[in-house]
Each structure stands twice: as structure tokens, then as C-alpha cells.
Design a protein that fits this description.
flat; two-stranded antiparallel sheet; alpha+beta; 98 residues
Length: 98
């Protein structure tokens, strides 16, 4: 089973987007805009959020091509089944210590 998944390509989700194979296993939302909260109170909030237009485009793509969306979601689900804490620690250890 696979569920079409759109993920923001920011902070910790960027690693998950890469793990899922980017456009091959999910719908990466790459256009990040400064958040209204950060603009209103820059001393309290910092950061960016997904452009709503990117999210809408991903949902429209999923809706228009349901068979393609299902195939992409299944590829992402297959990769997620391979994920484990053990494999995540191995990736982190390799990155930190070579």
C-alpha cells in the first residue's frame, strides 16, 4: 500500500525526500517562502514554509494522474519499508566517521 505523499524540502524532511528518491517516491515541495510569522515577529520566529502554490500543484498532479500517483506512492512505500532505526544510525555513523 502506498499513499501519495508531498513533503517540504526543508530541515529534517529534506533527508526523507532524498531517502524516498525525490520525484520518484514522493512529491518534493521545493519552493520555500519566508513564513508570515517570521515577517511579523523576526525576533521570535525564523524560517520558511512551503509555498502554497507548490502544495496545490502537487495535489493537482496527484489528482490528474491517479495511476501515476499510485505507482510513485508504491515506490515511496517500498523505500519506507526498508527504513529502520538501525539503517538510519548506520547512515549517520558513516556520515560522521566515514
Amino acid at each position: 500500500m502506498g499513499v501519495p505523499t508531498a513533503l517540504a524540502r526543508n530541515t529534517g524532511q529534506a533527508d526523507l525526500v532524498d531517502f524516498l528518491g525525490g520525484d520518484d517516491g514522493c512529491w518534493p515541495l521545493g519552493n520555500q517562502v519566508e513564513s508570515p510569522a517570521a515577517r511579523a515577529a523576526p525576533d521570535q520566529f525564523a524560517g520558511y514554509e512551503t509555498d502554497p502554490g507548490d502544495a496545490a500543484a502537487a495535489l493537482a498532479d496527484i489528482y490528474r494522474d491517479r495511476a501515476g500517483a499510485r505507482r510513485r506512492a508504491l515506490r515511496g512505500a517500498k523505500r519506507m519499508r526498508a527504513w529502520s532505526w538501525e539503517s538510519a544510525v548506520e547512515v549517520l555513523t558513516d556520515a560522521a566517521f566515514g
